[in-house]
TrEMBL record:
This is Carbohydrate kinase PfkB domain-containing protein. Residues 164-310 form the Carbohydrate kinase PfkB domain. InterPro entries: PfkB_dom, Ribokinase-like. It comes from the Eukaryota. It holds the Pfam family PfkB. PANTHER family: PROTEIN MAK32.
Length: 343
């Protein structure tokens, strides 16, 4: 497999400040959107190389099951008829803008760990995790142990997305300790700031982003050539390693975004799914590996924001795939053209 996530599927209720309408029973969850981001670049039959696990409770809507099955991924359903599906509320607070989202579970969550992965998933080239520092370390060690039992040589590329609750000033050392075991760490810019200060304005978050990245790289994570990808919402993303310091723009420019960006829920997760596939990409040669990851991630996020929930998959007469009636490679080539001059 090319990609596997240990993130969950969650059925979301999404509440916006009036007059923007709210929505219920929406396909969501970090795992789902990460899968979407990877799936965009793996048309069928290569879509089967995208692995994930979903616990399906007794209340799981049949139409949502059908939609997820239509993606034709390496999806493993685990039936849990004795309980509800994991559900959550995403609430965008009035006056905070669409880059600020309050999140809380409204049913008991049922997490994914290495024991839920099939042998094929354990051999994936990239593995995405969204979790606390302690859980990150445990998952990495658990996956490594199971791979050894399977006789799998080498390690996957681990991409870690720290959960917001673990991004506090008290957790900075725990984050640095966990980072040494992964290849890419990707908080958003607000989560990065929260590791260093109790409160920060959006302007302050961007202004001090570089020095905070430097602090995270000062230690074992930087010594092993770890890579930071800071997701900055509508401003794009910042790539930072020992060798790289680069801000890359979002796909939708300010002039193009009006009427296009409907709901940013899940865009950051989709970005990381796309990033994982981009890290495996052959070209173009004028991009570094991390830049290729960011390009794919940026294009993936562009599809995630165009609607409430996930984009619509359809097929042309010759079997070519369309997402929201657009082709992924068209967007990929368009974005590459935009950034070419900066390289």
């Amino acid at each position: 497999m090319d990609f596997c996530t240990l993130g969950m599927l969650i059925i979301d209720d999404i509440r916006h400040a009036p007059p923007k309408p709210s929505s219920q029973n929406i396909i969501g969850g970090a795992g789902t959107f990460a899968v979407l981001g990877a799936r965009l670049f793996r048309p069928y039959p290569n879509s089967k190389h995208i692995g994930w696990t979903v616990h399906r409770g007794h209340d799981f809507p049949e139409n949502l099951s059908e939609e997820l099955d239509s993606w034709q991924t390496g999806l493993q359903w685990i039936e849990t008829p004795e309980r509800q599906t994991t559900r959550a509320l995403n609430e965008y607070i009035e006056g905070k803008g669409d880059d600020f989202r309050a999140f809380r579970y409204i049913t008991e969550k049922l997490r994914i760990d290495e024991t839920h992965l099939t042998d094929e998933m354990l051999q994936s080239k990239t593995i995405h995790m969204v979790c606390s520092p302690e859980r990150c370390t445990n998952l990495v060690f658990g996956i490594q142990a199971r791979r050894v039992k399977l006789g799998v040589l080498g390690l996957p590329v681990f991409v870690w997305e720290p959960v917001p609750d673990s991004c506090t000033t008290d957790a900075i050392q725990a984050v640095k300790d966990a980072a040494r075991y992964v290849d890419v760490v990707s908080p958003n810019v607000s989560e990065l700031a929260a590791l260093f200060v109790a409160e920060a304005t959006p302007e302050e978050e961007m202004e001090h982003m570089e020095q905070r990245c430097a602090a995270l790289l000062d230690g074992p994570f930087g010594e092993k050539d770890g890579k930071l990808v800071i997701r900055c919402g509508s401003k794009g993303c910042y790539l930072r390693s020992n060798a790289e310091r680069l801000m890359m723009p979002a796909y939708w420019s300010n002039s193009e975004s009006t009427g296009t960006i409907v709901d940013p829920t899940g865009a950051g997760n989709a970005f990381l799914g796309g990033l994982c596939i981009g890290l495996l990409a052959d070209g173009p040669k004028w991009l570094t590996t991390l830049e290729k990851g960011a390009v794919y991630g940026t294009v993936a996020a562009s599809f995630a924001v165009e609607q409430v929930g996930v984009p619509r998959l359809s097929k042309g007469e010759s079997g070519q795939e369309f997402w929201n009636e657009d082709q992924v490679n068209m967007r990929l080539n368009y974005y590459l053209g935009r950034i070419y001059d900066s390289h």
